[in-house]
Write a structure and sequence with these properties.
mainly beta; two-stranded antiparallel sheet; about 65% strand; about 400 residues
Length: about 400
């Protein structure tokens, strides 16, 4: 398997190189002409120390090809112990109908998701048929699941989405893992800064044993004349399970939004409340989040303060963006400080993230990237008081 992947990668790279060179020399196909063909090749090496005196080197190879509505991508990972994972993804866009298939081996077969979606008069219908290994390496257990999707386009700012899972739970991952859409939008400074160097988590649904009804998710969303409101409700085979409610208002000139988000558990009790304020006066943006959560015995107060966060971002000459996040815990004590710097001076991009906790310095991450002639060269490093966490070198060629 590893040798086949490497041979395929080398062959594809040679074909692409000869093809792009031929197009450059052909007067009928000058550079920059649109032929409906594009792609990318990436190679990445990650060095990770393994205490007390060892290390690991992980290699990732990524390929992507897009030809007139068809997209194919591949991701292969090796380390010093051998083959780690292989993922394939293929998507076909036929206009009103889209077909996709995702396959993952890590290192043995673990996931296959065949999806089909169609748009009819503003209504999107879709289904995902999933075969997954939910057992162990020693004892594989294969199980089937299906997720049915139905959603409407926005009409006067109103939309509805329903997801039904048979043999599948965690359907919120189909919606990007976002439980409260307006809160996610207003808190984008928090998510952006804290996710600069974090690896994205899996957004796959969870496949369980047996092809039975497991979960239903219904989302109602409205954004009209400045009013923001949404409701996301979960049901399982026993009935009501969980719900998040949002209501707020957005002003223009200057951009000011405030929002309240409430979570209700299966006992119809309020489990959490968030109050969000977001203010944008270019080039400055400020976001505040105040959180409350249900208390634990022996407290007699049903809802207590659980945390406070402030996010601030401002741009300098449209080339440098400085961000700051400050978090306080339930005791009103300092919990975390994140400082980020993002600079883009063509063709160089620099990104830095420094974190502090209650004890002081917590970690530092730095990324540097240079892009020229369709090629991107980059390096990423992360370290803390104990030393280097990892160092990554990589490149990506787009054609």
């Amino acid at each position: 398997m590893p040798r086949i992947s490497m041979y395929f990668a080398v062959l594809l790279l040679l074909v692409v190189t000869m093809g792009t060179g031929a197009m450059a020399d052909d007067p009928c196909c000058p550079p920059g002409s649109t032929l409906g063909f594009s792609g990318s090749v990436g190679l990445e090496f990650t060095f990770t120390p393994v205490p007390p005196s060892s290390y690991n080197i992980e290699t990732g190879l990524s390929l992507s090809i897009s030809i007139s509505g068809f997209t194919f991508s591949s991701s292969t990972v090796f380390d010093l112990s051998g083959f780690e994972s292989q993922g394939f993804s293929a998507d076909v866009d036929l206009g009103a109908v889209q077909i996709g298939d995702d396959i993952l081996f890590d290192p043995y077969f673990s996931w296959n998701d065949l999806s089909l979606s169609a748009q009819i008069v503003g209504i999107e219908l879709g289904t995902d048929l999933i075969l997954a290994d939910i057992g162990s390496v020693q004892t594989p257990e294969y199980s089937m699941a299906a997720v049915l999707r139905l959603s409407s386009g926005e009409n006067c700012g109103f939309s509805i989405t329903t997801l039904t899972g048979f043999g599948a739970t965690d359907l919120i991952n189909v919606l990007g893992g976002v439980e409260a859409p307006f809160s996610y939008d207003l808190l984008s400074l928090f998510y952006h800064t804290q996710g600069l160097f974090g690896s994205p988590g899996s957004l796959n649904v969870t496949v369980v044993s047996g092809f039975y009804f497991e979960e239903e998710l219904v989302r109602l969303q409205m954004d009209y004349m400045g009013l923001m409101s949404s409701s996301t409700t979960w049901f399982d085979w026993t009935g009501f399970n969980y719900e998040t409610l949002e209501i707020g208002y957005r002003f223009e000139e200057p951009s000011l939004a405030f929002l309240s988000a409430i979570a209700i558990d299966d006992t119809f009790s309020v489990s959490s409340i968030d109050f969000i304020l977001d203010l944008q006066i270019e080039p400055v943006r400020f976001t505040s989040r105040t959180s409350f959560a249900s208390s634990l015995p022996p407290s007699t107060t049903p809802i207590v303060f659980s945390g406070q966060g402030f996010a601030l971002s401002f741009a300098l000459c449209d080339q440098v963006t400085v961000g700051s996040i400050t978090l306080f815990d339930a005791t009103f004590m300092f919990a975390e400080q994140d400082l980020s710097i993002e600079a883009s001076i063509d063709p160089v991009t620099l990104t830095s993230l420094t974190t502090f906790d209650a004890t002081g310095f917590s970690g530092q991450w730095i990324r540097a990237e240079v892009t020229f002639s369709g090629v991107s060269l980059y390096t990423v490093a992360g370290f803390d008081f104990s030393g280097i966490d990892y160092i990554t070198f990589g490149f990506e060629l787009k054609f």
